[in-house]
C-alpha cells in the first residue's frame, strides 16, 4: 500500500497530466515508464521512486519540487540516495529548489535531462563526488561548489569512502 505522500504525489502527477491534456499512454511513453506503473502511481497504489519522478518531471515540464507539491521536508529516496526538499523559491522568472542530498559512498545517481535552461549547483558539505554532464566532468570535495547545465543527462558519483552530503540547488526558468 502506498504512503500518504505517495498518494499526494500520484494525485499531483494526475492533475499535471490532465492540465497538459496528456493521456496516460502519452505521458508513460514520453517518460519511458510503463502505463500500468503510471496508473498505479496516479491512483496511490505505488510509491514513486526518484527515477520515476525525474522521468515524469521532464515531459510534464515542471521542476521536481512541483511533483511533491513544493512541500518542504518532502523526502524522495532510492537505494543509497536520499534527497530532502529544504525550500522552494518561486518568482515570475524562475523556480529555485534547495535539496539536501545524502549519497552513500560509491553510489551513482543518474538524472535525465531537465527542461531547457535548467542549471544545477552543488555545495559539498561532507565527502566528495564527481559530477558528469555531457562530455564534461567536475570533481568536488568538502567545502567546494560546482554548477552545470542540467538540461542534459548528468550524474553524481559519491567518490571515496565517505558518504556524500551536499546542498543541491536546481534553478528552472519559468
In short:
By secondary structure, the protein is of the alpha+beta class. Helices cover 27% and strands 40% of the residues.
In words, what does this structure look like?
- It comes from Nocardioides conyzicola.
- The protein is of the alpha+beta class and 174 residues long.
- The chain folds into 2 domains: 4-48, lambda repressor-like DNA-binding domains (434 Repressor (Amino-terminal Domain), Orthogonal Bundle), CATH 1.10.260; 75-173, Jelly Rolls (Sandwich).
- The chain has helices at 4-19, 24-31, 35-42, 50-60, 64-67, and strands spanning 75-78, 81-90, 94-103, 108-111, 119-126, 128-133, 136-141, 145-149, 154-159, 164-173.
- The strands form 2 sheets. It has a 6-stranded antiparallel β-sheet, with no helix packed on it. The chain has a 4-stranded antiparallel β-sheet with strand order 4-9-6-7.
- β1 (75-78) and β2 (81-90) form a beta hairpin.
- The chain is globular and about 45 Å long.
- The model has no long low-confidence stretch (mean pLDDT 90).
Question: What labels would you give this structure?
Answer:
single chain; 174 residues; alpha+beta; 434 Repressor (Amino-terminal Domain); Jelly Rolls; 2 domains; 6-stranded antiparallel β-sheet; 4-stranded antiparallel β-sheet; 10 strands; globular
| DSSP strand content | 35-45%
Strand order of the largest sheet: 1-2-3-10-5-8
Determine the mean pLDDT.
90
Shape: globular
- Give the topology string: H per helix, E per strand: HHHHHEEEEEEEEEE
| CATH fold name of the largest domain | Jelly Rolls
Number of strands: 10
Helix proportion of residues, in percent? 25-40%
How many distinct helices? Answer: 5
**What radius of gyration results from the CA coordinates?**
16 Å
Query: Which class of secondary structure composition applies to the elements?
Result: alpha+beta
Parts with pLDDT < 50 across at least 5 consecutive residues: none
Going by CATH, the homologous superfamily of the largest domain would be Jelly Rolls
Amino acid at each position: 500500500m502506498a504512503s500518504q505522500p505517495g498518494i499526494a504525489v500520484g494525485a499531483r502527477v494526475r492533475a499535471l497530466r490532465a492540465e497538459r491534456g496528456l493521456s496516460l499512454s502519452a505521458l508513460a511513453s514520453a517518460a519511458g515508464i510503463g502505463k500500468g506503473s503510471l496508473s498505479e502511481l496516479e491512483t496511490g497504489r505505488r510509491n514513486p521512486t526518484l527515477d520515476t519522478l525525474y522521468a515524469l518531471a521532464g515531459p510534464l515540464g515542471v521542476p521536481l519540487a512541483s511533483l511533491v507539491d513544493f512541500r518542504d521536508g518532502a523526502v524522495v529516496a532510492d537505494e543509497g540516495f536520499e534527497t530532502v526538499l529544504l525550500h522552494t523559491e518561486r518568482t515570475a522568472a524562475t523556480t529555485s529548489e534547495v535539496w539536501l542530498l545524502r549519497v552513500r559512498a560509491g553510489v551513482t545517481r543518474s538524472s535525465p535531462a531537465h527542461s531547457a535552461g535548467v542549471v544545477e549547483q552543488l555545495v559539498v558539505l561532507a565527502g566528495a563526488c564527481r559530477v558528469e554532464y555531457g562530455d564534461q566532468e567536475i570533481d568536488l570535495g568538502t567545502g567546494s561548489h560546482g554548477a552545470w547545465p542540467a538540461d542534459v543527462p548528468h550524474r553524481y558519483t559519491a567518490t571515496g569512502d565517505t558518504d556524500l552530503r551536499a546542498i543541491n540547488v536546481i534553478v528552472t526558468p519559468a
